[in-house]
């Protein structure tokens, strides 16, 4: 025969005989945890109702975007707002230039600028031989850039050879003489 303390309560799951039932302090901890969770749930509901009544949050995330953002998110937002997606993508390609053209070509040729209106990428080379080589590779490179950036981003590659030494004019120069500058370009 079982005593009233040993009888299972109504709605309680039957406990195996080998597992001790919580009693005393353990029951108090369980009841306290349940009460805290209920209070937290009620508090969240009350807080949400207050925010809805007064028109949203007073501090924190605002619709006008004045809250601090991580640097990457702020830069991405600025790029999108200003319409700089294409120049930023081309700038990324300029950073990955050695992977795009190969390390040997990258040693002798470097991207100088991108004209967004004409969609022309200007590339400078350190010798006329490399400039000629890059002119031959230009159609393949345009196709590779457009595959990476989106079709039509780069229409043409303008290849610039090395610049000659500055032309000096002075008393020891003959007028009309072009000098070493005529062998470059």
UniProtKB/TrEMBL annotation:
Residues 1-67, 165-185 are annotated as: Disordered. Signal peptide: none annotated. Pfam families: DciA. It comes from the Bacteria. InterPro entries: DciA-like, UPF0232_actinobac. Belongs to the UPF0232 family. HAMAP family: UPF0232. This is UPF0232 protein GCM10010315_05430. It comes from Streptomyces luteosporeus. The lineage of its organism: Bacteria, Bacillati, Actinomycetota, Actinomycetes, Kitasatosporales.
């Amino acid at each position: 025969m079982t005593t009233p303390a040993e009888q299972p309560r109504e709605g309680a799951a039957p406990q195996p005989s080998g597992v001790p039932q919580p009693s005393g302090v353990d029951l108090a901890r369980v009841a306290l945890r349940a009460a805290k969770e209920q209070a937290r749930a009620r508090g969240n509901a009350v807080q949400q109702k207050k925010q809805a009544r007064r028109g949203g949050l007073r501090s924190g995330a605002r619709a006008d975007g004045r809250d601090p953002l991580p640097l990457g998110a702020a830069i991405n937002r600025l790029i999108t707002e200003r319409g700089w997606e294409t120049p930023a993508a081309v700038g990324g390609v300029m950073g990955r230039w050695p992977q795009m053209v190969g390390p040997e070509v990258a040693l002798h040729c470097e991207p100088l600028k991108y004209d967004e209106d004409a969609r022309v990428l200007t590339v400078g080379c350190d010798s006329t031989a490399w400039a000629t080589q890059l002119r031959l590779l230009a159609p393949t490179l345009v196709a590779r850039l457009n595959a990476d950036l989106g079709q039509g981003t780069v229409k043409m590659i303008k290849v610039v050879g090395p610049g000659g030494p500055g032309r000096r004019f002075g008393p020891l120069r003959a007028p009309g003489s072009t000098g070493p500058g005529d062998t470059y370009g």
